[in-house]
Amino acid sequence: MVVAAGSGSRLGAGLPKAFVPLAGVPLLGHALREVLSCAAVAQVVLVVPDTHRAQAEELTDGVCRELGSGATVTVVPGGAERGDSVAAGLRVLGDDIDIVLVHDAARCLTPVEVFDRVVDAVTAGAVAVVPGTAVVDTIKQVDGEGYVVGTPARSGLRAVQTPQGFRRDVLERAHAVSSDATDDAGLVERLGERVLVVEGDPRALKVTTRSDLETATRLLTETP
Ligand code: C5P
After folding, report:
1. What is the DSSP letter of 10?
2. Residue 192, class by beta-carbon neighbours within 10 Å (0-12 exposed, 13-18 middle, 19+ buried)?
3. Which CATH number fits the domain that encloses residue 60?
4. How many domains does the chain divide into?
5. How remote is the CA of residue 207 from the centroid of ligand 1, in Å?
6. DSSP 8-state class, residue 26
7. pLDDT tens, residue by residue, 171-183
8. Which of 37, 94, 121, 212 could form a disulfide with 207 if both were Cys (CB 3.0 to 4.6 A apart)?
9. CA–CA distance, 19 with 218 (Å, rounded to integer)
10. Probe ligand 1: pick from 2, 3, 35, max atoms within 8 Å of CB?
11. Does 82 contact ligand 1 (Cβ within 6 A)?
């Protein structure tokens, strides 16, 4: 599932972030290329703003033709918050789907190797898997007034990315309880289930600001 229903207000491009062009192709188009290159993907659920369903379908047709992909693609409108959009996507999953990957369209350059790594770890028995990278900054926890209340050991911290992979029943159970976390693994953690971190990739950066868009453009031109 690719969640692409955010407004992208922080990017300030005047259109939903997933439809902002990066080297002439909408972020969603780049994301779809990687998703559809993953051999394990049988169905792609695209969650987009209601206003952009036709555009998403057109974009998808183009990428499928380009890659010769026969995957089933389902386009649905998203909700007010990211969690609502994931829940909308879950409602249209085919009966035969046992493993669900949730991917942010904003992480449009995440290479297919990361998808494969996540799928492999769920297939091998983990109920929830997230890609993550070591943290280079020292992270402080602060209170409401900005005073530091703690410094977690950096060696034990990971910056997590998407796609996040789950056994379908576990993700559905997590969303039935709550959907108000900044990632899906956070909801699964609340169930008391164990979440495994596998190696992420710097190219999986989340495009949020203009400067991220510039970084992504640079990464795209550097990638062979
Ligand atoms: O806003 P943020 O960058 O955290 O969004 C992460 C991902 O979730 C983006 O790909 C965005 O399109 C998606 N999203 C969504 N529905 C929302 C809000 C965000 O699908 N209501």
Report:
1. T
2. exposed
3. 3.90.550.10
4. 1
5. 11
6. E
7. 999 999 998 899 9
8. 212
9. 19
10. 3
11. yes
Tokens of 169: 């029943």
What b/e sequence results for 101-131 when a residue is b if at least 16 CB atoms lie within 10 Å of its CB, and e otherwise? Answer: bbbbbbbbbbeeebbebbbebbeeebbbbbb
Residue 17: exposure state from Cβ atoms within 10 A (0-12, 13-18, ≥19)? buried
DSSP 149-178: EE---GGG-EEE-S-EEEEHHHHHHHHHH-
Query: For position 224, what pLDDT does the model report?
Result: 63
Q: Which domain holds residue 211?
A: 2-222
- Is 67 within 8 Å of 159 (Cβ atoms)? no
Q: Is the CB of 183 under 6 A from ligand 1?
A: no
Q: Where are the alpha helices (DSSP H) in the chain?
A: 27-36, 53-67, 82-90, 112-123, 168-177, 184-190, 210-222
**Is 70 exceeded by the pLDDT of residue 223?**
no
Kindly report the pTM of this predicted structure: 0.96
Residue-wise pLDDT tens digits, 70-122: 889 999 999 999 999 999 999 999 999 999 999 999 999 999 999 999 999 99
